[in-house]
Amino acid sequence: MKRFFGKKINNKIIIEEDDLVHLSKVLRMKKGDEIICNINDDFDYFCTIIEINKKQCITQINSQKKCEALPKRNITLFQALPKKDYIDEIIPKSVELGVSNLQFFVSDYSNTKSINLERIKQQVLTASKQCERSKLMEVYPLINFETMIQKLKKFDIVVFANEKENNKSIFDIKELFSANNVALVIGNEGGFSDNEILLLKANTENSITLGKRILRCSTAVVSLLSLVNAITNN
Questions:
Q1: Which helix (H) or strand (E) holds 217?
Q2: Which three-class secondary structure state does DSSP give residue 19?
Q3: Do 101 and 181 contact (CB within 8 A), yes or no?
Q4: Core-most of 20, 79, 128, 226, by most CB within 10 Å?
Q5: Which secondary-structure segment (H or E) carries 125?
């Protein structure tokens, strides 16, 4: 059953803009067809189309069910800002692998200093439909390294993927098995400067290695999130 995002009004969900175009022009759906609607909350809404026009598609809610694809833990990814091509890889993988919040930050080796937040939010929407998440991953405006360090203090546990770490792995972090509010910190294609590594290690006891091979930042995201998911059942 096809899935669309819209807004809820009483017992109806209204689909507009890009999703309306996809529904009506691409898929050629019509009155009486059944679809799944999401409104950026914890539920899947099973609906029937009752009206389609040029401005909106109106659906009637038949039933609702808690979305099974929702993350079970609150995972926030702090990602040092990489090049655009890596951003395009990181966004969908973060959604698919259960990240609740994504925070890009500028580090010493960031080659760019800005992000297209609207474009990123559209990528989040597309990825959420693909992996059947009813609630969108939150993406925050870009911040600097110092602000990122301050934000880390709000989490139950912080895991820093450090390419210069030799011994400690994620399996050594026993607290991770029960932690609900987790921050993950990953560098960009240039890694972190020595000073940044010192500051990060001063603000977390969990500097870990992802292995002896140097990973691309997009690969590091998939690797670390997969490990966290396996440990936390996220």
A1: helix 217-232
A2: helix
A3: no
A4: 79
A5: helix 117-131
The residue assigned the tokens 């011994």 is 167
pLDDT tens digits for 6-28?
A: 999 999 999 999 999 999 999 99
In angstroms, rounded to a whole number, what is the distance separating the alpha carbons of residues 148 and 142? 10
Q: Which of 3, 11, 6 has the alpha carbon at shortest distance from 57?
A: 6
Tell the residue number behind the tokens 């937040």, with chain if given. 117
- Give residue-wise pLDDT tens across range 82-128: 999 999 999 999 999 999 999 999 999 998 899 999 999 999 999 99
Identify whether the C-beta of residue 148 lies closer than 8 Å to the C-beta of residue 203: no
DSSP run (H or E) holding 86? helix 84-96
| Spatial separation of the C-alpha atoms in residues 104 and 161, rounded to whole Å | 15
Instruction: Output the pTM of the full model.
Output: 0.93
Q: Tokens standing for 128?
A: 């959420």
Pairing outcome for strands 43-52 and 57-66: antiparallel
What is the residue type of 2? K
Q: Give the torsion sign (CA, 165, 216, 114, 109).
A: positive
Q: Is the pLDDT of residue 233 over 90?
A: no
For residue 101, give every residue at least 6 positions away whose Cβ sits within 8 Å of its Cβ, in sequence order, or none.
Answer: 74, 75, 76, 77, 137, 138, 139, 140
